Amino acid sequence: MKSEEIRKRFLKFFEERGHTIVSSSSLVPDDPSVLLTTAGMQQFKPYYVGKADPMRDFGSRNTASAQKCFRTSDIDEVGDQTHLTFFEMLGNFSFGGYFKKEAIRWAYEFIVNELGVSRDRLTVTIFAGDPSAGSGQVIPEDKESYSIWHKEIGLPESRIKKHGRQDNFWGPTGNEGPCGPTTEIYVDGVEIWNLVFNEYYCKADKTLEKLPSPGVDTGMGLERLAVMLQGAGNVFETDLFHPLISKLREVAPKLPYETQPDQPERILRILADHLRASIFLIADGVRPSNKEAGYILRRLLRRILVYGIQYDIHADLFPMAVDFVKYNYGDWYPEIKNTKEILTVMLEEKTKFEKALALGVKEIEKYESISAKDAFYIYETFGLPWELLKELVPAKVKNLAKEAFEEEFKKHQEISRAGLEKKFGGHGLILDTGELKASTPEEVEIVTRLHTATHLLQAALRKVLGPEVKQMGSDITAERTRFDFSFNRKLTDEEIKKVEDLVNEAIQKDLPVSYQELPIAEAKKTKALYFFKEKYPEQVKVYSMGEFSKEFCGGPHVTNTLRVGKFKIAKQEAVGSGIRRIRGVVE
Question: Which residues are CB-neighbours of 144 under 8 A, at least 6 positions away?
Answer without folding.
Answer: 100, 101
